[in-house]
Each structure stands twice: as C-alpha cells, then as structure tokens.
Amino acid sequence: MAKKTYFVTGTDTGVGKTIVAAAILEAAKAQGKRTLAMKPIASGCDQTPDGLRNEDALMLQAAMTEQLAYDAINPIAMEPAIAPHVAAQQAGKQLSAQRLVGFCRGMQIRPADLMLVEGAGGWRVPLNDRETYAAVPRELKLPVVLVVPLKLGCINHAMLTVEAIQNDGLTVAGWVANHPESETMSCEQETLGYLVNHIPAPCLGILPRLDDTPTERLPARLAEFLNISPLFDG
Asked: What's residue 23's pLDDT?
C-alpha cells in the first residue's frame, strides 16, 4: 500500500501542477523511493492509435518508478481542452467524486513510498452541479501540495486556496513556487517573502523557468530545486 499519498492542486489552471508533480516524483526517484501517480481526469487529450492520451498524464507516467497501464493513471480521458464537467457533458459522461475516489483507492493499494494524485484546474473546479474536485481529497483525507505561480495576483489566489483547503478539513503539507510565464514578475522576492511567512506549510522549492531544457528532461532538472523531505517526515 502507498505509504504517503498527496493531492496536488494549484491556485488556478495552467500554473504547472503536472511539472511540479513530475519533479517531485523525480526527486523521490533520486532518493530510491518507489512512486506512483495518477491524473484521474484529463481533458485536452489527443487521439492516438492507442486511444485518447493526455500529455500531462504521460509526463507523470514517465516520471513515476512503477510500470502501469495508461488507463490506470488516467482513467477518465476527454478530448476537449475545457473544464472537466463541460467536457464530460459534451462526451456524454457523468463525473462523480465517488467514482474518482474509487479509482484513487484502487491505486493506493499498490506498494509505493509515495503516491501523487493530480487534480484539474484549481481547488473548486466543478465535477457536476453538486460536487467540486475538492470532494475527492476530502473523502480520501489527503494532505495537499499546493502549486503557486509567481505572477501578479498570486498572493491573493494562494491565500484563498489555502483557506479553502483548511475549511474543507485538510492540511497543506507543502507548497511549490513555479514560473509558468517567461517574464519575471515585479517584486518577486517580496512576494515570495510574504508567501513563506503566511502559508502555514513548508516551501518545497522555487522552480526556475528552464526554456532551454527539452520537455522530457524538465522534471529531472527541476527536481534539483526541490526539498521533498517534509513529505516523508512524520
């Protein structure tokens, strides 16, 4: 059974959840840890001879140590690159938190030192008219790794997300600052200082933007900027 399981979320969509999750997996691999990961829902998938495939889920598959079929990592794959609940409606599918929880529990029974479950978008992304994705980590009682993009507005988005996570009865186990945009934000150090002092969890790393690194090598390179020991303490 997976010894440590975390839910990876972000302050918004497009903040780098997958690259952060893959970097954490690479950092754990470098320490000799056995790792698992899954992205239960992925929209924006491509048609391939093997079926629908999502580049984020493929990145997680490449970064984890255990060999699993793609469908175990991404059991719900949808083609439109839109919000999951809308993509599901267009595909005639029904999303529910309980179904996703079942997929996650099925993965958790596999032996590993670390397992990551990557969400979609931000903390309150809808699954349907009644549930948001937050119901999944809440049901599983998972601690959360938060990805914060260093760009204008990130303090407000980060603090609101932390507040929502705590209000749902969960803890932020750690957070990672990422650079999803090529331009450096104004007053970045002051922003980082505020986040470090006000997010009640350790900063696991500040990931630089490495535009000269091929995508397939990016997670391993970024792993060098992480300290994932808090994820294994306690």
From this structure: 98
- Two tokens at 108? 């958790």
pLDDT tens-digit series, residues 2-19: 899 999 999 999 999 999
Neighbouring CB atoms inside 10 A of 213's CB total 13
Cα angle vertex 53, ends 45, 121, to 5°?
Answer: 50
Rounded Cα gap, residues 26 and 92, in angstroms:
36
Annotated catalytic sites, by residue?
A: 39
166-186: average pLDDT: 93
Q: Is 36 helix (H, G, I), strand (E, B) or coil?
A: strand
Range list of β-strands (E), the chain: 2-10, 35-38, 41-42, 46-48, 51-53, 76-77, 112-122, 144-149, 172-178, 203-206
Phi and psi at residue 174, to the nearest 5°? 180, 165
User: pLDDT by residue (tens digit) across 99-128?
Assistant: 999 999 999 999 999 999 999 989 999 999
